[in-house]
Amino acid sequence: MGSILKDIYVPEHVVTAIVDSMTADQSRAEAQRTAQITSARQRLTALRTRMDQAYEDKLDGKLDEAMWTRKMQDWREQEIELEGHAAAA
């Protein structure tokens, strides 16, 4: 099979177009990954702010123990997921 492929000629402009396309695809993928990591970090910051505020509300008696426990469990699960996305760097 190697001898069959040896005789194939790809014009320089085609090679350049292929390389340019692959480079552009790689750049787009990297930009998308960076945007996803940034978004996850922002959502993680917002979630932690919400958790801190809920703790303040619990201490002030504005949030009962059952609600506090339920919400914190939900938020901790979200936090773990977001930490995974944010650490994908």
Annotation keywords:
89 residues; mainly alpha; 84% helix
Question: Brief overview, please?
Answer:
This protein has helices at 2-6, 12-59, 65-86.
What topology does this entry show?
Blueprint: H1 2-6, H2 12-59, H3 65-86
Helix pairs in contact: 2-3
How far the N terminus sits from the C terminus, by CA atoms, comes to 41 Å
Helical run tally: 3
What fraction of the residues are assigned to beta strands by DSSP?
Answer: under 5%
Low-confidence stretches: none
Helix and strand composition category: mainly alpha
Total domain count: 1
Order of SSEs:
HHH
Helix content estimate: over 70%
Based on CA inertia axes, which overall geometry fits? Answer: rod-shaped
Question: How many whole angstroms does the radius of gyration measure?
Answer: 25 Å
Q: What's the count of strands? A: 0
Q: Could you give a short account of the major beta sheet?
A: none
Task: Write down the overall mean pLDDT.
Answer: 92
Describe this structure in words.
- The chain is mostly helical and 89 residues long.
- It has one domain.
- The chain is 84% helix and 0% strand.
- The protein contains 3 helices and no strands.
- Helix 2 runs antiparallel to helix 3.
- The chain starts with a helix and ends with a helix.
- The mean pLDDT is 92.
